[in-house]
């Protein structure tokens, strides 16, 4: 028997903000796509408008969930895996800020300040739990643990634009250091312990995000393509290539909302390829950027279709 809408609201996951990260990343990519292909700016603006409407819808529903099913929200916050997705809310605010930097600087600044502050608060909260935990097991570790870290690395993209250079270096340093720490732990977990649960397999794509976003932020902070920038971007390219070789693994899993973990890392990788081409002018980098733009666009179209189908079939917002 199909659950009523009020009952399904209790199962509305915070992970929906990962979808918004992907949509906003898609908008930012297309707003910048004219650097590699001749496309009208209106495409990016249209995608941004759609992402904005999705943000309002998701935020409204999650506020209603908090008001009517507070225990369910607290259960997500106390879950060793799901709590990491609360950082997707602050990251979403930061991405809105980035998307609006040149369109509405004042509004962009407001989103950046709130998003960055929430990101730091949540990171301190999560790290406090890491330090004082009594129940973590290695099986709880998965690439979703990168999410609170990636949010810090994103901050400089908007921070430098708004004049907060030193604060941006602060966030960048935190994100970069803990990316390296978590990377070792995650590879230890993947190699020496049980495979990831099917629902979490798509989160492997999050491995792409820290070096790709790190490259974008580092370029904003320094303004030039040096050795360290190349290390970051080519590490991101390698992770992308590695995960593309695992297409057989990803094609076998059934649809979960976690499929949206494919989206934001691919947005970051596509933007990184665009920025790399802008600085090198190499034909190979141009082809790479266009190829990633096409692949990313197809991924987003597929995700939107599959998510709409899952909503139609009542496969989302149900007990796990």
UniProtKB/TrEMBL annotation:
It is found in: Membrane. It is a multi-pass membrane protein. Keywords: Membrane, Transmembrane, Transmembrane helix. The chain crosses the membrane at residues 12-30, 42-64, 85-103, 109-131, 143-164, 170-188, 200-221, 227-244, 256-277, 283-305. The keyword Repeat does not apply. It comes from the Bacteria. GO terms for molecular function: monoatomic cation efflux transmembrane transporter activity. Its main location: membrane. GO terms for cellular component: plasma membrane. PANTHER family: DEP DOMAIN-CONTAINING PROTEIN, TELLURITE RESISTANCE PROTEIN TEHA. This is Tellurite resistance protein. It comes from Ectothiorhodosinus mongolicus.
């Amino acid at each position: 028997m199909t659950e009523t809408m009020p009952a399904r609201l209790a199962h509305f996951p915070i992970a929906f903000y990962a979808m918004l990260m992907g949509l906003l990343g898609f908008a930012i990519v297309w707003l910048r796509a004219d650097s590699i292909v001749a496309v009208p700016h209106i495409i990016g603006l249209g995608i941004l408008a759609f992402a904005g409407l999705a943000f309002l819808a998701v935020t409204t529903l999650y506020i209603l969930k908090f008001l009517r099913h507070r225990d369910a929200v607290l259960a997500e916050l106390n879950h060793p895996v799901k709590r990491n997705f609360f950082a997707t809310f602050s990251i979403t605010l930061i991405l809105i800020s980035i998307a609006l930097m040149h369109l509405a600087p004042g509004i962009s600044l407001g989103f950046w300040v709130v998003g960055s502050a929430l990101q730091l608060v949540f990171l301190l909260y999560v790290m406090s739990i890491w330090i004082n935990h009594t129940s973590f097991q290695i099986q709880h570790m998965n690439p979703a643990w990168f999410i609170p870290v990636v949010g810090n690395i994103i901050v400089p993209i908007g921070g430098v634009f708004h004049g907060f250079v030193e604060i941006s270096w602060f966030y960048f340093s935190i994100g970069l250091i803990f990316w390296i720490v978590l990377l070792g732990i995650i590879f230890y977990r993947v190699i020496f312990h049980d495979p990831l649960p099917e629902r979490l397999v798509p989160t492997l794509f999050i491995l792409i995000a820290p070096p790709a976003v790190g490259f974008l932020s580092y370029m904003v902070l320094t303004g030039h393509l040096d050795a360290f920038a190349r290390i970051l971007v080519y590490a991101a390219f390698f992770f992308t290539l590695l995960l593309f070789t695992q297409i057989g693994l990803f094609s076998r899993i059934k649809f979960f909302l976690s499929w949206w973990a494919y989206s934001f890392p691919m947005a970051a990788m596509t933007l990184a390829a665009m920025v790399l081409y802008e600085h090198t002018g190499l034909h190979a980098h141009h082809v790479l950027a266009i190829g990633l733009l096409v692949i990313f666009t197809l991924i987003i179209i597929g995700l939107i279709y599959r998510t709409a189908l899952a909503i139609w079939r009542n496969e989302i917002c149900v007990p796990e």
